[in-house]
Design a protein that fits this description.
This protein is α/β, with parallel strands linked by helices. The protein is 21% helix and 29% strand.
């Protein structure tokens, strides 16, 4: 979208900031707007995941890359850069760190309580928020009690009480689908004008699988695009001058399929939507990760020509959409836009530093709960005889994944001992959650030998998933592993230093299955893509798949312990869905790990190297991990690893000879 902006007016381009004593540079839209033109800045937070403080509870140390209290300082500055501004949140504020778990599992949320993240958000004067999928993680009552404490409206247009109605407008929604905010805009000549701004929210329909234990029989989710097509015209009928979609959904594809998880590109095609704030994917748009994506203009910051932004995660960025609005009769229209994801920290020469200080009022709002969370996470539950780390979790059998599988097998074996499945072998599927990637070079599990505290267990298992078990065949075990092996790029024999890891494949979908042994032949192409679609039907990367020392029987039946996300079809794994479910636990995976450690007293998490790479003659591969990995390189089993220099953005490179 090309900005149609008149020449510079005599309005001052620099404005003094009494709060900081510094000069604030006005956005060009504010500096150049004329009569009947107004600059509106939309500020977005998204995927906060309860990160109020710039503090890593898992590592029990401050962290400059996160925290709403830091983002809040940017908000103050950025409001000063614009003549007119509004602040919205895009969901996933309620779950995702130990403070969220402390409130959910220890303190509770009864009617009348105010959640610490809501206390913090109330300080900042949000105009509205929508729901993210993790708002449902602790159940509907918890979510509704939390929302009740907000001083701002929370909207969601596609989650209903009970079943879906015949049409979207007849749905009995938990929340209002949208809100229309009446604001006064000051134009370039200093005159005030009324504008009605519509804000509508959406969440991925996959909540019905991911949180089925809370939602089945109580709720339903409608397709994002169909919901928008129904409600946006009504917003126009009610007088909305411009409409902003709060899309807790990633970018996705320009091709429509029903109930897409990531539908923001399609949402931009809905007539009547003027701008979109997005999230869910934990990325920043505009940004280099979106170069060349169909449907996006990364330079202009638009989706399908419409202004858009995605503001990172955990408060790492503030998303900004700047609109130049022009009054045409009694209507307003967008005549120009810019977008930016503004960071709160920077990384220079391998060191991360904060760009802003915390806003004291935000920290004060959650201080009591912050201190209670610190006490909670520091409580010891047992000991470990060996370090628990995930630095090599993507390239070798790993102690942080091993202990999760040990606990899951222990628990499910006990749970099924009096059932019809008692004689079936129990396997376990577990994936590394903290494995660098978007989280940075320090985003790894790292627990020294000795005491294990609750914070360490939360570090091992980030999500409040519940344990579930499926019954599947030997063939389905193999296909599960074929899907997991898609995290690796194909490797050519005789070629040196090929890139090993496919960055588009999330580490939480790299399941290692314990209880069997196998090798991964990287000379073959991946059979499935990152969403589970078959791309090379004849490929077989999983070789020498053995159970109890013998080739696995394709027809044999196995119980696999996993979590509710995977058992419900999360990740698109072939043949793994609710139809295979045989056991739904009331306990979270983290609770099971804690119980296992308590019972064992001292755990031995050493990896047993049940999987390795098959040899590829003359080939070497390169991967990146955190610099602290060097400490543990001698402990890695089943593969030979050597240092290969510095990587990008603070990571270190390592080489494997296959």
């Amino acid at each position: 979208m090309t900005a149609m902006i008149p020449p510079m007016s005599r309005r001052t381009f620099l404005a003094g900031s009494a709060a900081t004593g510094a000069f604030i540079v006005l956005h060009p839209f504010s500096a150049r707007a004329q009569a009947n033109q107004a600059h509106l800045r939309i500020m977005e937070t998204t995927d906060l995941h309860v990160h109020v403080y710039p503090y890593d509870y898992y590592g029990d140390k401050p962290n400059d890359t996160m925290g709403l209290s830091r983002t809040a300082s940017i908000i103050d500055q950025i409001r000063d850069e614009a003549t007119n501004a509004m602040l919205v949140d895009n969901g996933d504020f309620l779950q995702g760190n130990p403070m969220g778990d402390y409130i959910a599992y220890e303190r509770g949320m009864k009617a009348g309580d105010v959640h610490p993240v809501i206390k913090a958000m109330n300080v900042l004067g949000y105009d509205a928020s929508t729901l993210g999928n993790h708002e449902f993680s602790y159940g509907l009552d918890f979510m509704m009690n939390t929302i009740a404490g907000a001083d701002f409206p929370v909207v969601c247009a596609n989650v209903t009480k009970g079943e879906l109605a015949a049409s979207a407008r007849d749905d009995d929604l938990f929340l209002k689908p949208y809100v229309i905010v009446d604001k006064m805009l000051q134009d370039g000549a200093g005159s005030d004008h009324q504008i009605r701004i519509g804000l509508i929210g959406f969440v991925p329909p996959q909540i019905m699988s991911w949180d089925s234990r809370h939602l089945v029989g109580k709720a339903a989710a409608r397709d994002i695009v169909k919901s928008a097509e129904a409600w946006v015209p009504q917003m126009k009928e009610e007088g909305a001058d411009i409409i902003i979609a709060l899309s807790h959904s990633g970018m996705g594809t320009p091709k429509y399929e029903e109930n897409l998880e990531n539908a923001s590109i399609l949402l931009a095609g809905i007539e009547g939507i003027d701008a979109i704030v997005t999230g869910h994917s934990h990325l920043d748009f505009p940004g280099p990760k979106f170069d060349g994506v169909e449907g996006l203009d990364n330079g202009a910051g638009t989706i399908g020509g419409k202004p858009a932004v995605m503001g990172g995660f955990w408060g790492s960025h503030l998303g900004l959409i700047d609109l130049m609005l022009e009054r045409d009769g009694n209507a307003w229209r967008v005549v120009g836009s810019t977008s930016e994801a503004r960071p709160i920290s920077q990384r220079v020469d391998g060191k991360t530093s904060a760009l802003v200080e915390s806003k004291p009022e935000v920290e004060a709002a959650a201080k009591e709960e912050h201190e209670a969370t610190l006490a909670y996470v520091r409580t010891p539950v047992g000991k470990t005889s060996a370090p628990l780390h995930s630095y090599f979790a993507l390239v070798a059998d790993d102690p942080s994944v091993q202990i999760v599988s040990q606990a899951q097998i222990w628990y499910i074996t006990d749970m099924l001992k009096e059932t019809e499945y008692k004689d079936l072998p129990v396997l376990s599927a577990a994936a590394p959650f903290k494995a660098g990637g978007r989280g940075g070079p320090d985003y790894y599990t790292d627990v020294p030998a000795g005491d294990v505290a609750i914070r360490n267990v939360a570090d091992l298992y980030l999500y409040p998933n519940t344990v579930q078990a499926v019954a599947i065949t030997g063939t389905q075990v193999k296909e599960w592993l074929e899907m997991s092996s898609g995290i690796f790029n194909q490797v050519n024999p005789g070629k040196a230093d090929q890139v090993l890891i496919n960055p588009g494949f999330p580490s939480y979908n790299f399941d290692v299955i314990d209880g069997v042994t196998y090798k991964i032949d990287l000379s073959k192409p991946a059979k499935y893509d990152s969403e589970g679609a078959v791309i090379n039907a004849d490929s077989n990367r999983i070789v020498d798949l053995m159970f109890d020392g013998q080739p696995i029987d394709p027809q044999a039946r196995f119980v696999v312990a996993t979590n509710n996300y995977r058992a419900g079809g999360g990740g698109g794994f072939p043949d793994i869905d609710a139809s295979k479910l045989i056991f739904e636990a009331p306990d979270t995976n983290r609770d099971v790990i804690v119980r296992y450690i308590v019972e064992q007293g001292t755990i031995n998490p050493s990896a047993d190297a049940n999987w390795t790479f098959a040899p590829v003659e003359g080939a070497t591969v390169i991967f990146e991990t955190g610099p602290k990995a060097e400490t543990f390189i001698a402990d890695v089993k089943g593969v030979t690893i050597e240092a290969a220099g510095e990587g990008a953005e603070g990571f270190s490179k390592y080489r494997i000879t296959l």
